[in-house]
Amino acid sequence: MIAFKDEADFQVHWLPFQLNPQAPGGKGVNKMDVYCEKLGGGWKTWLIRPFFFFAGLREGISFSMGGNTGNTFDSHRLISLAAKQGLQDQIVEELFQNYFEQEKCISDHEVLLAAAQKVGLTGAAELLESDAESAEVNADLQKYQRNRGIHSVPHFLIQDRHTISGAYGSGAFKQLFSDIVNGKA
After folding, report:
1. What DSSP string runs through 73-85?
2. Of 107, 104, 130, 129, which Cα lies nearest the Cα of 23?
3. pTM recorded for the entire structure
4. Which residues of the chain fall below pLDDT 50?
């Protein structure tokens, strides 16, 4: 995006996606157990670990596979609230660090409240005690995840029509942005 800052106006909006909507909320369940179950066995999980670690290190991320995972619906409600306060990027970055690096479960309300406080988000406690932002999150899940058939992350939707699905390097984005700026896409 930096390479195109003089040619295009970028706005990032984080959309909800649930890998496992049936997962329990609260404190969640062991992350490695879930990964092993999803990948069909422990050995497959151990084979992909180096890919994640080295890819993360190149981007300044120290991935950790420990901790718990759970239903992310409440974290998406928090992100939706943050968008209305101009803090969406900040809360997403904080939740990513919590989950991927600090082994915190982002379905745990204590974790969500601490993240909200850290980035200056107001109304988080009230949100988590209600169904606020649920309609908005469900509408986005329906529109983007279910209707478009998105089944994995990361998934990037550019100008509501171009997609990049998967962990591609910056070259894929530079090519697409160049095509858009030059009227080829």
Report:
1. HHHHHHHHHHHHT
2. 107
3. 0.89
4. none
